[in-house]
Write a structure and sequence with these properties.
The protein is an alpha/beta fold and 284 residues long. Helix content is 39%, strand content 18%. Strands 1-2-3-4-7-8-9-12 form an eight-stranded parallel beta barrel. Helix 8 packs across helix 9. The chain is globular, with a radius of gyration of 18 Å. The two termini are 33 Å apart.
């Protein structure tokens, strides 16, 4: 199937996750998509086949680097080796966006292989802000910070999540990667209004949106990135576009990887909603 994004607007792109099983198809068929996004840590080696594939694909497509291991919310120092490898990758790929998470994942030098939540307090705001500024200074570019999916909240929080993110933007000059699926998942698990969440965020602070699937059990919604975007998340995406404008959007799919065509169909749906609901007057 051919997916055609007609009359593409250069201020807002639609992309999909790039997985190793798609490398050959992407280079051979050149699918009509605006960009691909990869997890930075998978390409930080000095060489190897994965990096060679990415460099080849980069010749035809913009790339967004999405990190999962900077651990910006950790109380310990940032890993300078990790930062140097990320900077080297940035210099090789020249990505149009670089992002990481509002989370921590390292303790005593041990990586916990998860994106763990931080309390939204003045103390953690200082830690996170200091680390974002340090990383941005080292990388010589702004970072995008992604809101997490959460399954609990800290009773001693001093900020709501959107208030905390807003303060990070003010203090560091970073921008936000708004994961709409994460907002929806967290709103169910922690019983808040996702529409009110959007209203708390300032305009012109978001440079990318993530859309993904989630799994539901009798109590929790789990952000699993392993299925189609659910209809309630699409509805929240429409409201996001109405408030913030046509923001570059990624279809994120990391588990139970389907054929590339499935992601392209989801991307086409996102693009149609951008055209229908995106508001240029509020676009960054």
């Amino acid at each position: 199937m051919t997916h055609s994004f007609s009359s593409l607007d250069t201020s807002a792109k639609v992309g999909v996750s790039l997985k190793h099983c798609y490398y050959e198809e992407v280079l051979e068929d050149k699918p009509n998509i605006n960009f691909f996004e990869v997890h930075s840590e998978n390409y930080m080696s000095e060489g190897g086949s994965s990096l060679a594939w990415l460099e080849a694909i980069r010749e035809s497509y913009p790339i967004s680097l999405h990190g999962v291991s900077l651990s910006l919310g950790s109380t310990q120092d940032l890993n300078k080796v990790h930062l140097k490898k990320l900077k080297n990758l940035i210099q090789k790929i020249d990505p149009f966006l670089v992002s990481d998470h509002l989370s921590w994942s390292i303790i005593n030098g041990i990586y916990l292989n998860d994106l763990l939540p931080i309390p939204y307090t003045k103390e953690s705001l200082k830690v996170m802000s200091d680390h974002i500024r340090e990383a941005q200074d080292f990388l010589s570019r702004p970072l995008l910070i992604e809101n997490p999916s959460s399954y609990l909240y800290f009773p001693k929080n001093e900020f709501s999540e959107p208030q905390f993110l807003t303060e990070l933007v003010k203090k560091t000059g970073c921008k936000l990667l708004l994961d709409v699926n994460n907002i929806y998942v967290s709103s169910h698990n922690n019983q808040f209004d996702p529409n009110a969440y959007l209203e708390e965020l300032p305009l012109n602070c978001i440079e990318e949106i993530h859309l993904a699937g989630h799994n539901r059990d009798h109590k929790f919604y789990i952000d699993n990135h392993g299925c189609h975007v659910q209809e309630e998340v699409w509805e929240l995406y429409k409201k996001t576009l109405k408030r913030f404008g046509r923001i570059s959007t990624l279809i994120e799919w990391d588990d139970h990887i389907p054929e590339l065509n499935v992601l392209l169909e989801e991307a086409e749906k996102a693009r149609k909603y951008q055209i229908e609901y995106g508001n240029y007057e509020t676009a960054a």
